[in-house]
């Protein structure tokens, strides 16, 4: 008896890389049928959960003008995001921060980076990536696609005052229901 022949793509045997997550985010951002399925609210962000590749956690997010995430990280998850409509600004840090054992850190000036991501552009990031994402437009809604692997176990939220980054609280999936 011969081995069964798969009728579709074989099950993947390895976790998705950050590059694969970015590829997914970019392909999804370029798919108008998916992007147009997101309801938009002028007053606040909206989101839909998507099936990401290889068991990753993926989201479609709508950003009214002037909205943003605040500074946060994604713990041990790597990820990627891509703008589908409008333009998003990402402020990020080039340094990898210690994950535990600190409450405030003084950042040196050279660690700050800013990216402006129009449609259809994106970026991948590794674990412990610290950033904030903003729609700085005063008139245009933005839509983006995000993917994380492993699925987010927690998010650490920070405040930023000049060079000082302060850990404010840790959110877990139960907080997002
Ligand atoms: Fe993020």
TrEMBL record:
Binding locations of Fe cation: 72, 74, 131
UniProt name for this protein: Cysteine dioxygenase
Family listed: Belongs to the cysteine dioxygenase family.
GO molecular function: ferrous iron binding; oxidoreductase activity, acting on single donors with incorporation of molecular oxygen, incorporation of two atoms of oxygen
Pfam families named in the record: CDO_I
The species this protein was found in: Streptomyces katrae
Signal peptide (from-to): none
Record keywords: Dioxygenase, Iron, Metal-binding, Oxidoreductase
